[in-house]
Structures are given as C-alpha cells and as structure tokens.
Amino acid sequence: MEQTELTAQRRTITGKKVKRLRQQGIIPAVLYGPGVESIPIQVEERALNRAMRRAGQRLINLRIEGDPQPHRVLAREVQRDVITGRVLHVDFLEVSLTQKLTTRVPVVLVGEPDPVHRGLAVLLQGVDEVEISCLPEDLISSIEVDVSDLKLDQVLQVKDLRVPAGVEILTEPEEMVAQLSLLRVAKAQLAEEEAVEEEVSPDEVEVIAKGKTAAEEELDEGA
Q1: In this predicted model, what pLDDT tens digit does every residue of 141-157 receive, in sequence order?
Q2: In sequence order, which residues have a C-beta less than 8 Å from that of residue 18 and are 6 or more positions away?
Q3: Which residues pair with 102 in a beta bridge?
Q4: What is the pLDDT of residue 127?
Q5: Which of 76, 72, 74 shows the shortest CA–CA distance to 96?
Q6: Cβ atoms < 10 Å from Cβ of 184
Q7: What is the pLDDT of residues 171-180, one digit of tens each?
Q8: Burial of 178 (0-12, 13-18, 19+ CB in 10 A)
Q9: 102-182 has which fold?
Q10: Alpha-carbon distances of 58 from 130, 145, 147, rounded to whole Å
Q11: CATH 3.40.640.10 fits 4-95, yes or no
C-alpha cells in the first residue's frame, strides 16, 4: 500500500500565540513517542486534512524539515472545534515497526438486508468499533461487514468479523455487532396470519369437505 506523506516544520510559537498560526492556515502539533523527546511542530492545514483522510487509522510518513529521516507516526489525539469540526491540534505518536500496538477501529455495516428493504425490519448495530492488536504496518482503517444476507433470527457477533492476517481482535467475541428488529406493523401482520392459520386448520377444512350436511343425510333417509 502506498505510504501517506506529510511535511511539517519545527514550531517555535507556543501557548496562546498559536491562535495566530491557525489564522494563517497552520495547525500546531506535537511529535512524541517512547524514548523520543516531545517536539513541537506545525503543519499546513489542507495538507494535514488530506493526509488524515487518506491514512485513516494507518501510519503516516511524517517528514520534519531538517531531520535526516522521516518519522512513522499515528495521529493519536486530534482536537477539533466543537462547532466547526476544524482541527485545532494533533498529537503524533512515533511508533516502532517491530512492536505491536493496540488501537480501536470502526465497524462499518454495508448492504441492506431484504427485510429492511421490504420495510418489515430495521437494522440495529451494537458495537460500532472494536479494539485490535497488530504491528504498525498491519494497521487497518476499518472493518467492513456485509449484512445483505442477514436474517431475522440471526445475530452477528464480534467473533464473526473477518480481519487480515496479523490483526487480532481484542474485543469480547460475544458482543453483538448487528441484528434485525422486526417493526411493530410487521409483528402485528405476522400475529394475524398465525391467528388465521390456527382458526382454520387443514384438518378442519378436510373434514368439512368430506362430510355430508344434515340436509343431505335427511334426503338419503327419505329415499
């Protein structure tokens, strides 16, 4: 998979003065990691947004101007404006490519089950993310689950999820991921159908068809 690249510069402006950076379209950030001294950096806002969309939960190749080697990082903490959603600050975690890490990835349901399409049921999602463990280069952005063939009596659980080799799911395997819930109208319709089936059973229909009426028996005796 092609690496996601992002260029940054070392930052000298700190504290409340970083507001001026944001006004110029520059986002303050920090690079940190095990055995790494925290380094204040800054990145161009549009480049940052582009890199984060592309990488998702995966690694970013962070190149700090003046450093001889790029840093393999994850965007661990992303602060956003609660109203606009604009990124205000990012903490980049530098990782070791030989040590496993744990993170959470979203579970994305795709497809539409037939009962939902027919308006008989709604699709319920339980866990919307799971915790995984893997090497940094094996990281995935999400887990897609096709629920097109999900049946009314079926419950999709965490243990049913499929992930690439090298990725281990740590979330409780019995946790519910998705299931169908029958709508009230559909429940009433099924109850009516069951009531009709009980009221007129096949055995009763057969007896009525084969037996004679009282009038027919009287005619036979008179003859």
Answers
A1: 899 999 999 998 899 99
A2: 11, 28, 89
A3: 133
A4: 96
A5: 72
A6: 8
A7: 999 999 999 9
A8: buried
A9: RNA Polymerase Alpha Subunit; Chain A, domain 2 (2.170.120)
A10: 15, 19, 25
A11: no
